[in-house]
Amino acid sequence: MNKIRTIGLLGVFLLAVSMPAAAEQLTTVAILDVSRVYSSFLRDSQAVRNLERAAEEARTEIRRHEQELVQLREQRVEARDNDNNRRVLELDEEIQEKQQFIEELRRVRSSQLERQQRDLMSSDAFLNEIQQAVRFVSESQGYTVVLNAADPNLQWWASEVDITDRVIERLRQTRR
Which of 2, 28, 114, 121 has most Cβ atoms within 10 angstroms of its Cβ? Predict the structure, then answer.
């Protein structure tokens, strides 16, 4: 009987001792806005400046072709006012070709810029830097799981668990 009571007390004691250990293993979740990290951190990099330059060159090229289209339309109005039907038909064809060219140019340039941006954001060196910063901030703040704020399954979170600013600050510190 004493032996059973001793075993029972030992069981209760072990249960009481193990409860704080189980409580310490609680999962703590942090949220990270990855797109904000990219835009904040990459803004100053040479690769981003190159991407912005390419985007500006594409916009300039498209604007130039749009100006040519405006001039063609003005020529068409002038030809119509002068009853030059043959010239109106020629200009209609040129206008249509120019419109199609501009649409295709927009599509191609947009695709190129999107690819460059994807390549930039997925570069191994940069992803490694982000991963190290997230790990440092998470471990130092006691978070065990970090979720992407862009995840459509996340409905709500408290601002206290958003570590985006701390990760950006850590990336800036490691860059100095």
Answer: 121
